[in-house]
Amino acid sequence: MKDFKESKLRKKLKKNKLTDKQKSIIKKIIIFFVFIIIILSCIIIINKARILRVEIRGLEYLNPIDIMEEANLSKYNNINIFNIPREEIKKDIENNPRLKLSSIKISFPDLLIINVVERETLFLLESSSGIYEITDDSYIIKNDYIHNYDVPYITGLTINPTNTIVENDYSKYLSSVIYDLKTNHNEIYNLISEINAYGNDLILYPRGYQVQVIMEKYVKVEKFVDLAAILKTLQYQENQTHRIDFRFKEAIVN
Fold it and tell me: pLDDT tens string for the chain (254 positions)?
């Protein structure tokens, strides 16, 4: 009798046991509903995630509030965090020739960070229409306020102030020479106080020396290196040197 009851119980349990096919179907249904929940959650997050704050970083001389207003960056408030118009922001920032866009980053949950780089001033250029800042990459900047006076001051170069960058051939040439000095011979670059580029020669005035230096119009970087060496020797001479002429094979010092 006992064996009969146990056998009957086993049959009942076996009958109620899920088949592998049924288990597979149930598993698929669960996965489907989990997937639907994830999709719905993502849609909600995407719709809710919006920019509430905009910050501009990387400025050294310029005022971030002024740049925010100039570029109208407040218009990017309340836009979807996954739909940032990066090219439009780049254009708004670089309308100011002093600025280059470095990167755009999102700081969750609601902060848009715009990283910029200020173009460095290579030299100041005096022209008939005013004083301009020429940047390392030859951009022409005309502002009422000069940000850096501790750079070479050049007169006699030709530029078109309506252009964005320097386009005159000789102005581009001399800019490239000065940039080479700044990049590879910074101590010599810092010696240049003023350059007069009128006429067929260059007249240079070294910083800290009462000396006039005459150079060829298309001067090479090597001539500036030679000049620096001569200026060092002048520090120890009792007689005052008034002129150094580099237009010949050998420099003439008198």
Answer: 545 455 555 555 455 555 666 667 777 777 877 777 777 666 555 556 788 889 999 998 888 999 999 999 988 888 888 788 999 999 999 998 899 999 999 888 889 999 999 999 999 999 877 899 999 999 999 877 787 889 999 999 988 888 889 999 999 999 999 999 999 999 999 999 999 999 899 999 999 888 999 999 999 999 999 999 998 887 766 567 689 999 888 888 88
Structure tokens of 194? 């003023």
Tokens of 252: 């003439």
CA distance 57 to 113: 7
Distance (Å) of CA 46 to CA 34, 36, 43, 81, 246: 18, 15, 5, 8, 68
Strands 212-216 and 243-245: parallel
Residues in the chain: 254
